[in-house]
Design a protein that fits this description.
This protein is of the alpha+beta class and 179 residues long. It folds into two domains: 61 residues, 434 Repressor (Amino-terminal Domain) (Orthogonal Bundle), CATH 1.10.260.40; 101 residues, Jelly Rolls (Sandwich). Helix content is 22%, strand content 27%. The protein has four helices and eight strands. The strands form two sheets. The protein has a five-stranded antiparallel sheet, with no helix packed on it. A three-stranded antiparallel sheet has the order 5-4-7, with no helix packed on it. The chain is globular and about 50 Å long. It starts with a helix and ends with a strand. Keywords: DNA-binding.
Amino acid sequence: MKEIGYKIKEYRINQHQTLKQLSEITGLSTSFLSQVERGESSIAITSLSKIADALKVDITSFFLPNKQKDFHIIPSDIKQFKINHSNQEFKRVSSEFENRKLENFIITIQPNDRSELSMHEGEELYYVIQGELTFFIENQKYVVKKGELIHYPSKHKHYYVNETDFPVTVLSVVTPKLF
């Protein structure tokens, strides 16, 4: 997470913004932003998205560049990352090209771990590669097992949780693109 903080600071300084200005635009406290920039605090994807918007950069610019030379993606060659206080491991498996609409991840979710409750424009699709994952969409509960999929409009309140004793691996395809 330190690399993300350093990149936030670099973009902010290059744009001649103070922490206070960034705070006012994002609604995040100056002290929190300072801690993130120093690598002393982790950051939720929603907060990182606000910062990217405020700095007018693509959220992917905060992560190590994907060294793809073509559209062929080999997940084992991609560096994993974690977000916030989660134990979930993400591998971004999206190609970089102009006007891309989809954001693709392979996510490993540890037992009892969950995503944030969210609601936004777009769609989400999850294919369970290994294990079983429970989704809550509005007031409905869905248990999705290995080889099954779930696809829903993201405008509904939603989150997922691994209610099992084993790690779960999923392929996630979402819009709009996050990174």
